Amino acid sequence: MLSVQNLRAWYGNVEAIHGINLEVGQGELVTLIGSNGAGKSTTLKSIVGLMKKRAGGIFFHDQDISAYTPSSVLACGIALVPEGRWIFPELTVEENLKMGSFLQRNRRAVAITLEEQFERFPILKERRRQKGGTLSGGEQQMLAISRALMANPKMLLLDEPSLGLAPQLVCNVFSLIKEINDSGISVLLVEQNSTMALSIADRGYVLSTGKMIIQGAAKDLLNDPKVQKAYLGYN
Ligand code: ATP
What we know:
Blueprint: E1 2-11, E2 14-24, E3 29-33, H1 40-47, E4 53-60, E5 63-64, H2 70-76, E6 78-81, H3 93-99, H4 107-120, H5 122-126, H6 137-149, E7 155-159, H7 167-182, E8 186-191, H8 194-200, E9 203-208, E10 211-217, H9 218-222, H10 225-231
Parallel strand pairs: 3-8, 3-9, 6-7, 7-8
Antiparallel strand pairs: 1-2, 1-4, 4-5, 9-10
Helix pairs in contact: 3-6
The structure holds adenosine-5'-triphosphate.
């Protein structure tokens, strides 16, 4: 479904991604893990057209999207939930959600998708007239995910969705991601919380200083002593 081939990306003259390959199949939940600064966010930004300088192939359903703008990537069916959520604090919950369907001109279709989101996230319905900035961290993360779903994506890219959340909320976010994937949306999940990410994923990739160093079935990575020692906090 998504195929990233020999991807390279630069910040100015500094190369941050050195020719990586990555695949996400239809209906799969794939996680990309690695230490701080490994290049996980840069990989997601490259896929959605947010990196100015990049090279290599990015294919979605065999269509070459490597030169697409962010809105064309979204129109193809790939939505990003960025690190730090980036909700609009001064807009209401409902207005934030509607921003997610800015490509949809049919108001009726937007209203239907909004109702679907309110069914999935009753707390957002309850707070629909409240400003986004007044929500708790966990609710803001829900809002950011729900806003991405407003575009009716076929694939969701999530950048550190559990960052900064209390432990109970972290579990909720991971169950939500699993649920979204079970509803048929393919997922590429970037996470620092590698154990939780691998425990819900089908497959995983480990990125280190811009290179893909390990990949495999998530359950194999969870049992791999090298991965356990370097990324899962085992001694
Ligand atoms: P983190 O979990 O800390 O976000 P990451 O794995 O997502 O880490 P990236 O943010 O993709 O890593 O960063 C990859 C490399 O690119 C790092 O060396 C980082 O310092 C560098 N980098 C990231 N953003 C920029 C930027 N805007 N300008 C210059 N260099 C950057």
